[in-house]
Design a protein that fits this description.
Elements: H1 7-23, E1 40-43, E2 52-56, H2 58-67, E3 72-76, E4 79-83, E5 87-89, E6 94-97, E7 102-106, E8 114-116, E9 120-128, E10 143-147, E11 153-168, E12 180-196, E13 202-209, H3 222-226, E14 228-233, E15 238-241, E16 244-255, E17 265-268, E18 271-282, E19 287-291, E20 294-298, E21 302-306, E22 311-315, E23 318-322, E24 326-332, E25 335-339, E26 342-344, E27 350-356, E28 360-363, E29 366-368, E30 372-376, E31 383-386, E32 389-391, E33 395-399, E34 406-408
């Protein structure tokens, strides 16, 4: 696998590749009678697939992709297709199921179900692990859909049932820049989307990560203590929108990976509920922007925490917690700009805690029903706190440190 070329070289190669694909076969001839390119497709049934949930259809799928020409879509008619090994989708090809009718039944745990190279598409399938239903001790396995190619992979309308990791790069990282990931749903034990090593923007939207049904005690289940909706490591820009998760460890974890700290992460119009550790955890010193996000985390350590020199900008967010936790916590040399947000607390809840010497601005927020509205510890410095509405709090502000700071005009 080609890994981690320099960013400029990667972008140049991608642009050239995109141009070649756009020109197609007509780019190699000047004949006036050249035939226009046509869209071709093939059914996996034509290569021996049965789809009855019993017959092993792995080789039929592999043979289909070996036999079809570039630019062809392999279709999965309604049925249950058993996989005993990984299936690779070649560049410029697609695997497209029948919506709400095509399922991949995965019987192996040592490799992904599907590998998506650059300029490929996977859509409209459910991926089911029937032997991984133990909520307390699930079987660990690689990502179900593996993004391995340089350039865009398109993954859409995928349902996961008992997968360990939904969509992701391999453990050693891979460049999946320009990929588009849309309309994922269902249940995973550990992570819905894991990206590490991308050298360009990855777009993610409409990801819904649900609760598993089973007899296991909820607080003993693996997913309540470990699950992440998004785990982003060392990637050059991630756009995440319109996504939701209920119950897990962390909704979004951002940390350094194979490509260093990476660039900014943008999160908008998302909802999260019931995280056991943090809602959002920024650990890598990069920049994150939140707009229009609703966060509720019962008994978590913090709803949002910023560490290791990270920078967070939050606006138009609603942050609510239940019992003895904190809304936004800023540590070390990290910094935040928080404006036009609403914090709704409960006994023991601190709306914002600054424990950092990084420059922070807290302005025009509404904090109410908190134990403490805004707390600046002895280690805090270089902050401005102004224009906030601090009502129905047991203690509106607790200012301990800040020799180079301003606190004024708060109500």
């Amino acid at each position: 696998m080609e890994q981690f070329t320099n960013r400029r070289g990667f972008l140049t190669q991608s642009a050239l590749a995109a141009g070649t694909i756009g020109l197609g076969a007509c780019s190699t001839t000047t004949k006036m009678d050249a035939q226009p390119a046509t869209v071709t497709s093939a059914s996996v049934r034509d290569f021996g697939a049965v789809g009855d949930g019993k017959h092993d259809d792995t080789e039929a799928l592999r043979e289909a992709f070996k036999s079809i020409p570039s630019g062809t879509a392999v279709h999965l008619p309604r049925g249950d297709y058993v996989l005993s090994g990984v299936v690779d989708i070649p560049p410029t090809c697609a695997l497209m199921g029948e919506p709400f009718g095509a399922r991949l039944i995965v019987r192996h745990y040592d490799a992904p179900a599907i590998r998506v190279a650059g300029e490929t598409r996977l859509s409209d399938v459910a991926i089911l692990y029937p032997d991984n239903t133990d909520l307390a001790n699930p079987r660990e396995c690689p990502e179900s859909v593996s993004l391995v190619g340089n350039g865009a992979g398109y993954v859409e309308n995928i349902t996961f049932i008992n997968a360990f990791i939904g969509v992701g790069t391999p453990a050693e990282g891979a460049n999946c820049g320009q990929s588009v990931i849309r309309k994922l749903n269902g249940f995973v034990h550990d992570t819905m989307v894991r990206i590490d090593g991308s050298l360009d923007i990855v777009r993610i939207e409409n990801v819904h990560c649900f609760v598993a049904m089973g007899e296991e005690e909820p607080n003993r289940s693996y997913y309540r203590q470990h699950r992440k909706c998004f785990h982003i490591k060392g990637s050059d820009g991630t756009l995440i929108s319109k996504s939701f998760m209920i119950f897990g460890k962390v909704f979004l974890l951002k940390e350094a990976g194979h490509h260093g700290s990476g660039l900014s992460t943008y999160l908008s119009q998302c909802w999260l509920e019931g995280m056991s550790d943090r809602g959002i955890l920024l650990n890598d010193g990069s920049r994150m922007s939140l707009v229009g996000v609703e966060l509720t985390c019962a008994y978590a350590k913090a709803v949002i925490e910023v560490n290791n020199g990270g920078f967070l900008r939050a606006s138009s967010c609603y942050i609510r917690d239940s019992m003895h936790s904190k809304g936004i916590v800023v540590n070390g040399e990290s910094a935040v700009i928080v404006g036009d947000c609403e914090f709704f607390g409960s006994p023991g809840f601190t709306g914002i805690e600054i424990n950092s010497t990084g420059r922070s601005i807290i302005s025009n927020n509404f904090l109410h029903h908190c134990e403490v509205g805004i707390h600046c510890t002895q280690q805090a410095d270089n902050y401005i706190i102004t224009g906030n509405q601090l009502s129905i709090n047991n203690q509106p502000t607790a200012i301990e440190g800040g020799t180079h700071s301003i606190v004024k005009d708060n109500l």
